[in-house]
TrEMBL record:
Residues 318-367 are annotated as: Disordered. GO terms for biological process: chromatin remodeling. The lineage of its organism: Eukaryota, Fungi, Fungi incertae sedis, Chytridiomycota, Chytridiomycota incertae sedis. GO terms for cellular component: nucleus. InterPro entries: HMG_box_dom, HMG_box_dom_sf, HMGB. Keywords: DNA-binding, Nucleus. It comes from the Eukaryota. One of its GO terms (molecular function) is DNA binding. Residues 80-151, 186-261 form the HMG box domain. This is HMG box domain-containing protein. Residues 80-151, 186-261 bind DNA.
Amino acid sequence: MSSRFLSGGFTKSSVFSSYSYTSSITSSYTRYDTVRSPFLSCRHLAGLSTSKPVNKVALKRKVTQNILKNMPALPQIVPPVKPGNSYSFFVKSNAETFKDCPPELSAKKVVWASKKIAEMWHNTSPSAKKLYFDKASVALEKYKKDYAEYLKKLTPAHHTLIRKINVMRKALGKKVQKPPVNVHLPKRPTSAMFCFMRDAGALPHSKLADLIGENATSTLVKRTSALSKVWNGMSSGDREKYTDEYKRAYEQWFKENAKYLANTKESTQTITDMMAALTKNARAQVMPKKKLVKKVKKIVKKVVKRKLVVKKSTKKLVAKRTVKKSAKKPAAKKTTAKKTAAKKTVKKTVKKSAKKPAAKKVAKRKA
């Protein structure tokens, strides 16, 4: 766990102290109201939806940031700081000699001092440099011991949490921490071929030369490729020694690994449950809230249904009547002719009847 990783994304020096994210993450993404979102729904583009479209990428980033901010702190375990090399020890011891800089070079004081110290380092004798080499080697040995103790202090919960944090940091495009080695986890045994290579590498140079020839003095890659060819050409009887060794080691590892997983199940499950709860709370805070629509009871007015009187279409009847009238027109003329003839006869009879008393009067007068 490097100090550079710790200072890059977290406010405190330890990964396990606060997990509070800096404001640099919030400035790394654009808000929806400044840039048009590429995730516009079809309903919004068609004008059917008046609601604001959701930018899913920005929401995921906000959820991840919220989880990292609200993550509880585990017991603080600060990793040891790796020491510098011999030159860094030389710079620390001679930094005060170049403290006073000429006034004309005050703007470039650091550059001037670094050049002077580099010249001084090149001019020092090897015997004087040995003092700084010894200091660097002692500091490195101390660092290795401290780092081994630090790895032993890390619990399975720490390893699970570091893995979860790395996943979230990778999603945000941030630097991922190199996960520390889990020394409590049982180490898986090597295969039978690597057991053979291990024994072959421990052989004296003369015997190794008899086995792989000129490749005994070549690079590691060429030696391993030559030994793999020898392994492939071996019979099953010669391989039996290494295969049996691998089977025994695998059975032992399988039992130890099952025991380790059973013991650490509780602590890893607590971390998993904690992450699930944080994710749920973050989504509830970040995701847009839906508007609650109050259900209003509709007042239904009782409407008396009136029976609709269907008027029969008179078009067909009118058409039939017109056809009948047009067909009966000549008959009507005949009837009218008969009526006129009858009227004439009636008139004649009326005239005759009217004229008869007049004739009688004339006859009376004559008499």
